[in-house]
Amino acid sequence: MILDLRDGEAAAYNINVAFEDGSVNEHAFRRWHAKFESGDDSLNNEDRCRSELDVDNGILRVIVQQNSCSTGRDNEEQLGIAPTTISR
Q1: Which of 42, 74, 78, 86 has the least C-beta neighbours within 10 A?
Q2: Any idea what DSSP says for residue 47?
Q3: Per residue in 46-58, is it b (16+ CB within 10 Å) or e — as a string?
């Protein structure tokens, strides 16, 4: 497979066709390309400042089952977590 590395969208599309839909997106391809172009050929994932799991899904499930009328915001406040954590 030959990829045109100047066109990240087309390269990501070709990778997805060859391997599996959703294998890579354009942003990831561009990040990998920049990494390899800089001479870093390691396949280790770099830390991208993502936080660890903030809440156990089991705990969240129990809270929702106890009060099925509660909103995501109610649960966020009760658990003391960021608003986007539950919606992910």
Answers
A1: 42
A2: P
A3: eeeeeeeeeeeee
Amino acid present at 70: S
Per-residue three-class SS string for the chain = CCCCCCCHHHHHHHHHHHCCCCCCCHHHHHHHHHHHHCCCCCCCCCCCCCCCCCCCHHHHHHHHHHCCCCCHHHHHHHHCCCHHHHHC
Amino acid at 3: L
Helix (H, G, I), strand (E, B) or coil at 13: helix
**Percent of residues, the chain, with pLDDT higher than 90:** 0
Alpha-carbon gap, residue 34 to 14, rounded angstroms? 18
What tokens were used for 68?
């099925």
